[in-house]
Design goal:
Blueprint (H helix, E strand, L loop, with lengths): L4 H8 L1 H25 L4 E6 L2 H16 L4 E5 H6 L9 E7 L5 H13 L4 E5 L5 H4 L3 E4 L12 H17 L3 H7 L2 H12 L2 H6 L6 E5 L5 H15 L2 E5 L16 E6 L5 H13 L3 E6 L12 E4 L10 H18 L22
Parallel strand pairs: 1-2, 1-3, 3-4, 4-5, 6-7, 6-8, 8-9, 9-10
Helix pairs in contact: 1-13, 2-7, 2-9, 3-7, 3-11, 7-8, 7-13, 9-13, 11-13
């Protein structure tokens, strides 16, 4: 088997897998609406581990800003180890796990059941898993199951389910329709990328990668950072764009690549940060709706999304190009993206699994 075969196939299959996730969501929508109507909650707490903690951050931002229900994200271990981490009532627990066997998330769910009367909604790729079986309702993307250790299509598919959940809670039919455009938008994006992820990912003179994202994109910047670490064993970081000026930019030099996931709301200031970093010597890559946002100046590289979707709807599109970049960087370094060093798809804690 060629190096990284599973990972590459999982990255490239995302348009079809997203469509399957949306079809599954549509089939379960009526039951979901009944569940939400019957569940009394004033807030949502979203938990996950590693990639799914960052997914929880993105989901919490969307749920808080697009619905009337506040949501916050916690690592699963915080809820498991600190029983006062969430209120004792009025909470809907949103558990997110690719495998549905994550030790910390299982223990967080158990702790929640012990201390809280609220309901549990699970997002997973394995609806038969222990975590799913212990939830009150499950949103699943079984077509997104993976053989690789690093999450790619599982992350984006579960993110898509969280956005569809947001649309239902917000009674936003237009948002649901827009989400339905994502599979074809990703096909178009893949066709337009040419060899840019390969060229940038294979540039081993880059030794330090920084991912910037705000609002709905901060959790995704964190996931981009983690994916780059996992696949290519690279020094990578993630920040809110304007926070990067407050100390971390002291590390910027000609060996730095700064990648900006550009939003709508913060666009002007985010572009200014990216320009500042280029002036300090960094190489720059922007993921933007289109290149017309750059006036009188251009980043070194631009990936145009051309999605026609707003910042709360197009989140899944930012990650596949970065997944490709991390894949090519891994291969260029002589690594196997399917088998990240020190990592396994299942981490066991005291007899549990993740």
């Amino acid at each position: 088997m060629n190096t990284g075969t599973h990972t590459w196939q999982e990255i490239e299959s995302q348009p079809e897998v997203w469509k399957a996730a949306l079809d599954g969501f549509a089939a379960s929508r009526s039951a979901l609406e009944s569940f939400l109507e019957q569940s009394a909650f004033a807030q949502i707490v979203a938990v996950g581990c590693g990639s799914t903690h960052y997914l929880a951050q993105a989901a919490a931002a969307a749920l808080t800003c697009r619905t009337e229900t506040p949501c916050r994200a916690l690592p699963s271990s915080e809820l498991w180890l600190f029983e006062d981490a969430v209120p004792k009532e009025g909470v809907l627990l949103l558990t997110i796990s690719r495998s549905g066997t994550t030790t910390e998330t299982l223990r967080a769910q158990e702790r929640f059941r012990e201390t809280n009367s609220g309901a549990v909604l699970n997002i997973t790729c394995h609806p038969e898993s222990p975590l799913a079986q212990g939830a009150d309702f499950v949103l699943a993307a079984p077509a997104a199951q993976e053989q690789s250790v690093a999450q790619t299509r599982s992350f984006t598919s579960m993110l898509l389910l969280s956005l569809a959940l947001t649309a239902v809670l917000a009674h936003d039919e237009a948002m649901l329709q827009q989400l339905g455009r994502l599979p074809s938008a990703l096909q178009d994006l893949f066709a337009s990328l040419d060899d840019l992820p390969h060229r940038v990912g294979s540039a081993l003179s880059i030794r330090h990668l920084v991912f910037l994202g705000a609002g709905p994109l901060y959790g995704l910047a964190n996931e981009a950072m983690l994916k780059t670490k996992e696949m290519s064993l690279s020094n990578s970081e993630a920040y809110h764009p304007l926070e990067f000026r407050h100390g971390p930019m002291s590390l910027v030099d000609e060996h730095t690549l700064v990648v900006a996931l550009l939003s709508d709301s913060g666009l002007t200031e985010e572009v200014a940060v990216l320009r500042d970093m280029q002036e300090l010597g960094a190489r720059t890559l922007a993921l933007a709706q289109d290149a017309s946002v750059f006036v009188g100046w251009q980043p070194d590289h631009v990936i145009e999304l051309h999605s026609g979707l707003d910042e709360w709807e197009r989140g899944p599109l930012y990650l596949p190009p970065i997944q490709r970049l991390a894949f090519h960087r891994s291969v260029a370094k002589g690594l196997n993206p399917d088998e990240p060093r020190h990592l396994t798809a299942v981490v066991e804690l005291g007899g549990g699994g993740t």
